[in-house]
Amino acid sequence: xxxVIAILAFGILIAIHELGHFLAAKxxxxxxxxxxxxxxxxxxxxxxxETLYALRCLPIGGYCAMEGEDEDTGDxxxxxxxxxxxxxxxxxxxxxxxxxxxxxxxxxLYSGSAYFVGSTIVETIDGFKYAENGIQPGDRVYSIDxxxxxxxxxxxxxxxxxxxxxxMVVVRDGEKITLKDYAIAPDYYTDDQGNEVYMYGLTFxxxxxxxxxxxxxxxxxxxxxxxIVWMGLTDLVTGNAGxxxxxxxxxIVSTINQVGEASATASLALMNIFYLVAFIAVNLAVVNxxxxxxxxxxxxxxxxxxxxxxxxFRKKVNPKYEGYIHAAGMVALLGLMAVLVVNDVLRxxx
Length: 350
Hints:
Layout: H1 2-27, E1 32-47, E2 52-66, H2 84-109, E3 115-124, E4 140-144, E5 147-148, H3 152-160, E6 165-172, E7 175-183, E8 187-190, E9 196-199, E10 202-208, H4 211-238, H5 249-262, H6 266-288, H7 296-313, H8 319-349
Helix pairs in contact: 1-2, 1-5, 2-4, 2-6, 2-7, 4-6, 5-6, 5-8
């Protein structure tokens, strides 16, 4: 069941993405030849005034086929004939819809929350080993290694990436204090129930979850999704992570299935799965806006380049050349996806 949910979730995420392009294109009076939900043979079609609407048998995506996407067809309503600002809006609309969807899922998941855990330290557990010249009760953790801290989850996230020594900024009595090269690490402490727990030895403040706090927490969570994706991309560029640590569609579906099976109840499984789906939605939004050929971000990048060339040289670039570059980029992306699928299958087999 969880595998089916995961596959459907992927299809919905891509369909929502294409719906963003479709709505923006219609709003900008661009001709849309076909809007399809799903891929493969059509199981339902309806010809509108100018757009063919289709529902296809494979729930793994969809597409919005606009007139003149990669070449000038001569139609005044073709995509390539539109002003740069209209084309930019249409290109960004898909990723925007993914981000909005991710945010709405998060907001719904947290709508029933009673409280959140903030970033202000209420107390340190008896035996706290890092109090000298360091954190004190009443401090609000402002940043760790330059990364802003909003809630306890942020503290845990960025401390987990450290080697035990961080540059921490805390707000104490209204003043920012920098704890340079502050050594702090989790250790074994005894909690109020007498249990030995592996933790940082800190207790953070509790925030009542009224409507405003729920919306704020949902916003920060969505923002943190972006930060986590960016950290992953940075690790790839710097070599701290390799292809073997990346997951493709098969790996993500497998992870969603594992999360569902590991949850104590079906309702908790759905909550955990939808949390993952929200993260994937924001992930798709961020990755799709990268300046890589074939992605929307790559198209926006070339759009800016074309605008500069037109301003400087008073000459338009033939759209077909950009189309060739995006086609090559698509081949490269499909190749990367194939490699990730193979890695996913091998990882599952092992």
